[in-house]
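Slide 14.
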Amino acid sequence: MNEILLFRTVDQMQSTSLRWRREGVRIGLVPTMGALHEGHLSLIDLVRPHCDRLVVSVFVNPTQFGPTEDFDRYPRDLDRDMTLLADRGTDAIFAPEAREVYPAGHATFVEVEGLSSVYEGAIRPGHFRGVCTIVAKLYNIILPDVAAFGQKDAQQAAVLRKLTRDLHLPIQFLVGPTVREADGLAMSSRNSYLKADERPKATVLFRALKAGEASIRAGERQGDKVREAMRKVIDQVPEFKPDYSDIVWPESFEQVDEVRGDVLAIVAGRIGSVRLIDNLTVTV
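Slide 15: predicted structure.
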């Protein structure tokens, strides 16, 4: 098992990062909210060849949760996470308390306009402002040369890529592929909320995405027809309450009228009390 450093304060983490940078050390970052699974760990494997020191942040960020969302019950188990990260070759964990990141009087936030206001942004107002703010903070605290995010949260990755580009940050931005269970369900910390009878129904997200892909592979080029193929699968599971199912352009998240090049099938909704999201890139 790798000996792992644990930093609980901004000063500890930032002073260590500054020292590493002075020594010519290349730093990698994988931001997480903990409750780690193979999807998170695959991002460590993605970043590891690009850095000398790899830092994983474990922080359940309050500013990206709405007032009725699951901040209080979001799974937290730092000891388990530390064991997984040490086994995977992580060098350091940054796991601060909320008051350390957002001290009294904090009033500065970061926002990417436009892209943050559709789909997930429309359903969860303020969510991407919280995401962008915490990632900007992590960039400034950990000072990474390279950072990795998961394709499972495709809109989040698109928003953060734009943030990184727009602010001219000298950070190599990596996106790791979605890691799935054997039945296709995308790995997520929130999967643990699913009841036993809900778990098989949750595969409807992936099956809807695959129906959209199959429609395109069969030659369909009208976006509305592809969306219709996805909705037919969704309608077969009345327990799933969709927020959206669509075909969009991967960078802008604008709706696709005519399929060409790379397009992104996206779907989100609830099964019982659990909200799930998924996506699939299709290349014509």
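Speaker note: The mean pLDDT is 96.
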